[in-house]
Design a protein that fits this description.
- By secondary structure, this protein is of the alpha+beta class.
- It is built from four helices and nine strands.
Length: about 170
């Protein structure tokens, strides 16, 4: 069987106040891959964030405009799987391990509704061990979760680019 589908960009979602006609909030996904078979339609959403050695960068990766969109916002509604892609602007060892530490902090894990898998908040190896560094599982509101369970699984990909490193702060 072949996997046939289409890559799309910037799928828009919004909250509109119909009484006033104003857009209250708007988000756009970075990249989505859509495919179907004889009985189902599937979509996988990818969110890309630059990640350097700073706390601000890490918070941007997992915050309101990053991972949190898959937990409390309109990204991947009804879908069980999504991808976060970190574009590393700096050395892997100075970017990814501090992010892993931040994600396991009780306050961060609570905001992101990260669920333990085998006793750990980060699942290593990933379900995509040749591509993703780790996975996280997040509880979602029933209205946004897949119909069969209440979580979304996020696999975390990291891409090292040849940009000059950012000094640690």
């Amino acid at each position: 069987k072949k996997l046939l589908g289409i890559w799309t960009t910037e799928e828009s979602h919004g909250i509109v106040d119909y009484a006033s006609g104003k857009i209250l909030k708007r988000t756009r996904t970075d990249i989505a891959y859509h495919w179907n078979d004889t009985s189902n339609n599937y979509s996988v959403i990818f969110e890309f964030k630059k990640l350097d050695t700073t706390v601000t960068s890490r918070k941007h990766y997992y915050g309101e405009k990053g991972m949190q969109r898959f937990v409390t916002e309109t990204y991947a509604i009804g879908h069980p799987l999504a991808f976060m892609a970190g574009i590393l602007i700096g050395d892997w060892n100075n970017c990814v391990p501090p992010l892993c530490t931040d994600l396991q902090l009780p306050a961060t894990a609570k905001i992101l509704e990260i669920q333990k898998n085998g006793g750990a908040l980060l699942t290593v190896p990933s379900i995509f061990p040749d591509h993703a560094t780790f996975d996280t599982q997040h509880l979602r509101d029933k209205s946004m979760a897949p119909p069969t369970h209440g979580t979304i699984h996020i696999s975390h990909l990291f891409f090292q680019f040849g940009y000059p490193p950012v000094a640690a702060k």
